[in-house]
Protein: Acetyl-CoA carboxylase biotin carboxyl carrier protein subunit
Amino acid sequence: MYKIKVSDNQTFNISEKSLESLDIVVTSTNDFHILHDNTSIKAEIVKSDFNNKMYSIKVNNNTYEVDIYNALDQQIEALGFEIGASKKVTDIKAPMPGLILEIYVTEGQEVKENDPLLILEAMKMENVIHSPREGKIKSIHVKQGETVDKNSLLIEFETKI
Structure:
């Protein structure tokens, strides 16, 4: 299931099955002809940012900004992290209530994106919380063995000025 956000004001959920049933013809590299409900639609990908899953698409001479979220993106969003905003993250909050099993970092430590920060046990599952960005750990607000509520502040990053 894909979540499609169009121009920040409309959201659609599209299944893989519905994508497969589209009547679409590629007319050139970025141009497409779509037949939907017996209506002919001309679409062109004007600009694409594959890594951030953001596209500018012209449909019948109207341009739309489109963001595409796959299942993993939607899970990240559900855990309380912002998609595409990892470089702006200044703190890590608990995505769910649980028990802090292990803390891998110390205050003042430099971390890289995707480095493990800590393990949060929730519903008998161990969830490794990874760093969403490069940076320096400013403070750690929890201790090993401590229970936390959802949205409890766990770790703060130093902000660069």
In short: The chain has a mean pLDDT of 84. Residues 82-157 form a domain with the OB fold (Dihydrolipoamide Acetyltransferase, E2P) fold (CATH 2.40.50.100). The chain has two helices and 15 strands. The chain has two domains: 2-69, 82-157.
